[in-house]
Amino acid sequence: MNKYALISLTNKDNLYLLVSNLVSNNFKLIATTSTAKAINELGYECKLVSDIASYPEILNGRVKTLQPEIHGGILADLSNEEHLKDLEKHHINPISLVVCNLYEFEKTLSDEENKFNDSDKNEEDIKNKDKNIIESIDIGGVTLIRAASKNFEYVSLLCDPNDYQEYVTRLNEDRIDYNYRKFLACKGYIHTANYDSKIANYFMKENDYYNQLFISATKLQDLRYGENPHQKAYVYLDSDKLSYSINTSNIIQGKELSYNNMVDVDTAYQAIMEYDIPCAIAIKHATPCGAGWAKDINEAYQKCFDVDSKSIFGGIVILNRKVNYELAKTLTSIFLEIVIAPDYDEEALKVFTSKKNLRVIKGDFTNDKKAYEQVKSIRGAYLVQNTQDNNASIEQVTKEKVDLNTQAALNMLNKVVKHVKSNAIVIGQKEHVLGICGGMVNRIDAAKNALNYALENKCYDKEQPLMLASDGFFPFNDIVDLCVENNIKYIIQPGGSINDEKMIEACDVNNIGMVFTHTRYFRH
């Protein structure tokens, strides 16, 4: 009995490897139009689907493989006498191999969404976008993959060009066994589930109808362990290649990233993306312990280091400018787990080689800064929220007015406090972060600790007033009292307490300028 292979591909990578080995193993080839053309160009013969089906390709290719002669050949149970009789009666040949991958829905979606900002779209634009996206939704291919996967006892499925080499090796060694076909079927179901999840997520987003959560990610690797050595852990990559993320990072040197490393790296990326000017941020236990900005990146790092030179030990540092030789020498003078930057001088990379365990990461810092959703698992459920807006409004609420330059300085501190674990306080002056404290169970202790760091910072100018940023409102006067006692003259906080008026009155009595952002930045 002849062996038949049906081939219908969007991604034609590795096609020669597969086809040449199929032909040498006496397979008869059947293909859809564009795939048949590619096979012919390689010098091999194949029949078109329309040559063996009752109907030709119709509806501009929407119907190609949705034919009884095709699906009967794929779905036949060759141990079932009735199935064999049906095949003979209708002159259908059993198909033992299906090679199929799907229309590039994600690429079309990305291309269409990049054409316009949401605010630019009119009704006609939306209809055209929908039309192009709908045409990229595969129907026949999904059906082929599911049919072959269902009948894996008799049919092999290849939906990933990276699997061709193993398949042809097994084919040549006569090792296409039951378990291998079952494994390929598993990959088929994963392929279609991933595909359908992307389509469903698009339509849910378009209709603001979020009654299901579909997460589709590809396993990158097993991690050595989780938060603690006795916990197993893995990392899966989202297909959405966001800048400022682990899935667009290149690890230049050092050990593999651990579970905790990846959490810290994510925190670092979220924090650094707030700043366009040269900036350095130090992260320890998923919270900033230092931050600095200046006209050049070397000075920015020094300011970051000075905030808390003890806690930065064993932490990670992210910088939003190229790292030069001088800065690399400074960074390697202490123990760091990770350094992240958009680029490095060759001389800087040579310096880092002296610290073999130091992870050096080149990140993607392109300015796409797309919104995305954060998903957190709790026992028996998932929590989902959108990311925080980068820009908080500022309302003057005290008699002591805050000029625009001071507002800008307060806003820079507020961008830091946004990424510190609650309760969070950041204290600084116009050009510096001086003290950071977060993760405390009450706000006054966080303020006291941040103040202690600030007063010990060598950048602290005793002649200049201090500024304080808080991620949450003040329920009591204790923070304002601390400000009065320690020359803190400006406060930025969200407001929203039932005691806001008392806080404003206390500031007015003591000539403190306070602004409200009306945006709380709790981070758990």
Can you identify the CATH class of the largest domain? Alpha Beta
Count of runs of 4 or more consecutive helical residues: 18
Poorly predicted ranges:
none
**CATH fold-level name of the largest domain:** Rossmann fold
Structure in words:
The protein has 3 domains: 3-103 and 138-207, Rossmann fold (3-Layer(aba) Sandwich), CATH 3.40.50.1380; 217-362, AICAR transformylase, duplication domain (Cytidine Deaminase, domain 2); 395-516, AICAR transformylase, duplication domain (Cytidine Deaminase, domain 2, 3-Layer(aba) Sandwich). 38% of the residues lie in helices and 19% in strands. The chain is built from 18 helices and 21 strands. It has helices at residues 15-24, 33-41, 49-52, 68-75, 81-89, 105-115, 123-135, 140-150, 164-172, 178-207, 259-272, 297-307, 325-331, 346-352, 404-417, 443-456, 478-485, 500-509; strands at residues 3-8, 27-31, 47-48, 97-100, 156-158, 217-223, 233-238, 250-253, 279-284, 287-293, 316-319, 338-341, 359-362, 373-378, 381-386, 395-396, 425-429, 432-437, 466-470, 488-493, 513-516. The strands form 5 sheets. A 6-stranded mixed sheet has the order 8-13-12-11-9-10. Strands 16-21-20-19-17-18 form a 6-stranded mixed sheet, with helices on both faces. It has a 5-stranded parallel sheet with strand order 3-2-1-4-5, sandwiched between helices. The mean pLDDT is 90.
Topology:
Layout lengths: L2 E6 L6 H10 L2 E5 L1 H9 L5 E2 H4 L15 H8 L5 H9 L7 E4 L4 H11 L7 H13 L4 H11 L5 E3 L5 H9 L5 H30 L9 E7 L9 E6 L11 E4 L5 H14 L6 E6 L2 E7 L3 H11 L8 E4 L5 H7 L6 E4 L4 H7 L6 E4 L10 E6 L2 E6 L8 E2 L7 H14 L7 E5 L2 E6 L5 H14 L9 E5 L7 H8 L2 E6 L6 H10 L3 E4 L8
Parallel strand pairs: 1-2, 1-4, 2-3, 4-5, 11-12, 12-13, 19-20, 20-21
Antiparallel strand pairs: 6-7, 8-13, 9-10, 9-11, 14-15, 16-21, 17-18, 17-19
Helix pairs in contact: 1-9, 8-10, 13-14
